[in-house]
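User: Some background: our group keeps a shared notebook of sequences we're curious about, and every so often someone picks one and asks for a predicted structure to add to the entry. Today it's my turn. The entry only has the sequence so far, pasted here. Could you supply the structure so I can complete it?
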Amino acid sequence: MMEYPPQMPARSDLSEAARRAKALRWMFFDVDGVMTDGSLYYDANGESMKRFSVLDGHGLKALKHAGIRIGILSGRSHPATAARARELGFDVVIQGAEHKGAAFDQVMADFSISAAECGHMGDDLPDLEIFSRVHFSATVPQAASAVLAAAHWVSQRAGGSGAVRDCCDFILQARQ
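Assistant: Of course. Here's the predicted structure to add to the notebook entry:
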């Protein structure tokens, strides 16, 4: 059974996470459960909506300003995700990725980058395909147990409530 909130990694683990974060040139994010709280809101016509945090947007813009490219790797497709990605200037947006590992491989090939230059923030089992390959992996406190165990760093904030901003701040602090 998962503790909530999960215990934070020991100081030495945070030092290792910071070392890994410092080397990043690219950071990828899942959407549902990371950039959002994972809830889907349906109106009377069956249209779904998502809620994004403004705090996260400022963090993502700060990463871009620091020269880190940002991408979305999501298993679901939604027009709100595309709109938010355009607004924030994401470099890569992949939605509807049934196999995130294959999508990640394609991005690496398209941009001639290596997994050693990349990080990923995700919360569920499909994200483990990427976690096992990237240099830095991050997650949220409500993530699946296997994801919590595999992550180098865990936000203190929930998905959709500033977790992405928390991650961006950690990466930027590690680079200083």
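Suggested note for the entry: The chain has one domain: 12-110+119-175. Strands lie at 26-29, 41-42, 48-49, 69-73, 92-94, 118-121, 136-139, 153-154.
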